[in-house]
Inverse folding.
């Protein structure tokens, strides 16, 4: 593993190691995968504007997310079925995050119980929530999350229906029945959820609420008006509606519409520290990664995830320093521009 | 056939099955095929803006075209010489459309008589019309259409001359003499047809009139002033003048110029449900497909066409739901944007 | 030859037939050949706006160039050393042009004497002029041109120095000494020629004067102020300064700056009739081609050139008709637009 | 060597000759090398606007840099570890520059002592300075530079930290211990250097001061306010922060912000004389090259560097002449434009 120099090489190593009929689930996107590809390509059309002759002798990546301190502006995005890649699964990713001081967002489709994760890892955790058609099950889920130390709920709003992922269909991917899913499944996600249901969630838990999957200014305004605490710009890694803007391109309009009323996060296509720094420059408080973490998990379990986090942390610090900044807070809109077309 | 996951795979299967010297006719475009390629590529430069937290528990694709109800905003575009792909030919495509509740537009170059199609299929049908140099023949054709249940005439206006399709020339494609063409041929299309002749058509039939092949605001204004009922934005699938804008890019100016005075349809390069939804967002009332239908017909006759329509219907429904809409009418200009360049 | 369907296929056939160490001279461009490639690629970023329901039963390509009638808005650009491709050389190209009723522009570097060409071909001819350092030789040349029926002089102004064509250097191309060059050579072109020398040319001949190689509005204004009769937008086929705009992109600013004070022509990358029609739409009175003619000459001498002219004439007529025009004069700025970026 | 026609071929020859584990250091860039590639690609999106009928019989490339006359507006950029390519190393490159009358910028990481270079080469030299953490060492370095005939100091400001160059990591590149580095190392560069330290440098030397590595208008304004004599637009050849604008694209904003208060230079991706002329047109006083020089050095030591300089000088002169200019001073903003997108 030590010879893997960057996230891209981790992804290649994972693809070489894991059964293609399994890896397809983690790697693939919806339909023609236009959005999957654009999520990556979009970064190169944003350029950093580095400032020189700034004392960057000490760089501190610490920041806060909804008031809690984390060691860097990068967290682990939730992704399902981690058990398919390594038996450690969500326990491994959560522990690696805790060791790194990074935020882990635990998926509804975890094969570990939340108490097990709490016992294993003493770090900041958010719960990713899919509201199930059986609402009582979701209420139980929220209660259990409250009891097991989660500090926020990230409600996924971009999966009222399941995107058409043809790699899975082609290779016959199916969730193995032996994987326990304690808190819900994709097929039972409630497609009728609306803005009014946010009040129901608010009534069910006093945890801060983040909406994951917003990509427009219109929904940002609605979210702010509904008092959400955070907006997570995402197109679900290109796995839902194909033909949506890359999150890094959608970020500016969301940040502008949020107008400081809530924190803004982003995921989708982040592979380098400089990608994270671009997100900071466009107004995100943090970025999240899933596939890079899946690759680390596949390559070497918890140690692999730790190594991926370490690589990205080092790249973020380097990019920050070369940009002429010593902390995430110093990165501003003046540090980024569109490439000339 | 069941392993074919999408329209693209149907096209590949058709290309593998049908004699290249025949398939070239259906697949190819004019000259350098710039427009043929751009028709497809243009879709990825339009991005959907999905809205979240909308109840999409029930999605209804029904809409009306010139007042008649159809099951979805996608119809079968007319294309000639279907007999070359399957003996069922226009009967198969028309029946598949009827079964799906979709609109079928029957070509002038059908090898079935209109009465045969009427007898076989009880669904909405429009007649695609090429005005022949022998105008009497066209009058007879219009009269026969009126008697056989057609509900509108789609006059093709972008073929005063036949485009130069070099694939056909290279492979020596020629229309086999045993294919009966009862109502006209391409070489007899009248190149002198003008706006004044619309009055002559109006006098010959009381069916609603659609102009197929308009791509400019200027012609849209003329069409509206001449009282046409529908405008069909099309560049004839890239088979006529090479170097014309993709229909999805020409659509906005036509919709704006039409200004609600007539319905607007579009064809050209549609391969995915999300393509159709993009057309709706830009103001089209429906999209039409020809090559995907040709592929279905080639692969498995009527059943193949039915499967293609089913795939597209499912994709449209999914795209609609993921966009946060439950019907075609809800899709608006606010649901689409140009990609950042 | 009859199986060659278009100019591109003629070019391929020529490349396959002619010694690479010779063909490199005709095919190549300067340095990295960025301009050579862009000259071709630029056409696809301009889109035609076809108008429908226009009577195109009769299409007439005739136009006038400096008052003389030609059969189409396409002429043969001058190119040197035609003898390397076919013994007929300039006689073959000039005769083919005359047969087609098209304008031929005869190069200074012809291996035939002007009187021989006059005797062989009874068609419109312009003389392409390189002013030699030995000005007396140029005066003789102009006098001979006047006596041998030329109707205009196209002074090449973009070759004060010879562009660096690395294909030639790589393959060791050199002008064979047995080729007679009666009127001048490239190495003797006078690099000190200025606007003031136009008066000297005007004094030496009463033939209309065209400047070949203008690409800016600034030089267009100067040309018009100096009373030239025509401006020929060209970057010498990408053979001089690499990194210059494609002529089709430079055309609009030249046309605008000329403001009707002189005719405007264009060459560079024309391969299709629709390319010529785009030039007309942007305000050119005619387009010129060299490499397509060289290919025809290489493939089958005069007959090959005739066939290339015939193919292009047919394509122009078809493009004109499909655009909704019946003559070059009808093509307007409203018939073209930039592609969406 | 004589068969190498241009810088690109020199680079290929060097890559073929030098051990890949060594050449990687010279060839590679940071991380994904987006900037490395864009530095090259950016030139083709700027187009030259050549003017015709200008007397270019005599072209003189001479110009001045900070008041000193040089034979052309192209100099040798500093690059480290030249000894890895040829034993002549910095002595070879400095001598070749002197022979050509071009400016050589000698790197802090030279393996020759400055006095040796002074003795060997009688040409204009600037010192490239990395301020070391041990400031006394830098003071000594500046004093030695003053005594050995340097006429300016180019302070590198874009390497407070060392960029992540993965080619080196992959191939295990390390600086051989036998190479003497008398004046400093990369790992000892002081990351705490700020604008205030410019005063300290000013106090330590009366040589003119150039800042190398500026890419923004903001830093340009600061530099001008701090009275620097020159600004060198550079992203360190794509070796530091990946994702920065190509220097040729950043040049206009720097030139505008400098507003004539100091000279502006540029490096990054220059491979052709026309690239240099584009830089002049955008307001640079000179361009610098490093990899082309490294390639010349690798191919044939001092003679190779001389040949590269000769090739580029000839290309610059040719480009200048074809642009209608006879000296660098004549090239203006009117000679360049963005390509149409």
């Amino acid at each position: 593993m030590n010879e893997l120099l960057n996230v891209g090489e981790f992804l290649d190593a994972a693809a070489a190691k894991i059964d293609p009929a399994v890896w397809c689930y983690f790697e693939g996107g919806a339909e023609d995968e236009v959005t999957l590809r654009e999520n990556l390509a979009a970064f190169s059309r944003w350029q950093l504007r580095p400032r020189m002759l700034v004392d960057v002798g000490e760089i501190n990546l610490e920041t806060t997310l909804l008031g809690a301190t984390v060691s860097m502006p990068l967290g682990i995005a939730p992704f399902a079925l981690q058990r398919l890649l390594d038996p450690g699964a969500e326990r491994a990713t959560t522990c690696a995050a805790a060791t790194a001081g990074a935020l882990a967002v635990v998926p509804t489709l975890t094969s570990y119980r939340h108490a097990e994760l709490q016992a294993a890892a003493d770090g900041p955790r958010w719960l990713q929530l899919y509201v199930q058609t059986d609402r009582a099950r979701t209420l139980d889920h929220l209660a259990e999350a409250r009891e097991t130390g989660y500090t926020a709920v990230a409600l996924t709003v971009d999966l009222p229906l399941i995107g058409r992922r043809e790699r899975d269909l082609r290779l016959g991917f199916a969730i193995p029945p032996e994987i326990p899913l304690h808190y819900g499944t994709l097929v039972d996600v409630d497609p009728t959820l609306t803005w009014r249901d946010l009040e129901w969630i608010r009534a069910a838990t006093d945890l801060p609420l983040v909406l994951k999957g917003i990509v427009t200014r219109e929904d940002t305004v609605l979210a702010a008006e509904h008092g959400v605490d955070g907006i997570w710009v995402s197109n679900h890694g290109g796995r839902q509606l194909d033909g949506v803007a890359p999150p890094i391109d959608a970020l500016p309009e969301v940040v502008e519409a949020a107008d400081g009323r809530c924190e803004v996060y982003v995921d989708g296509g982040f592979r380098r520290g400089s990608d994270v720094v671009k997100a900071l420059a466009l107004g995100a408080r943090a970025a999240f990664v899933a596939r890079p973490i899946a690759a680390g998990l596949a390559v070497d379990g918890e140690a692999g995830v730790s190594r991926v986090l370490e690589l990205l942390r080092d790249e973020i610090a380097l990019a920050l320093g070369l940009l002429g900044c010593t902390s995430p807070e110093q990165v501003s809109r003046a540090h980024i521009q569109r490439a000339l077309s």
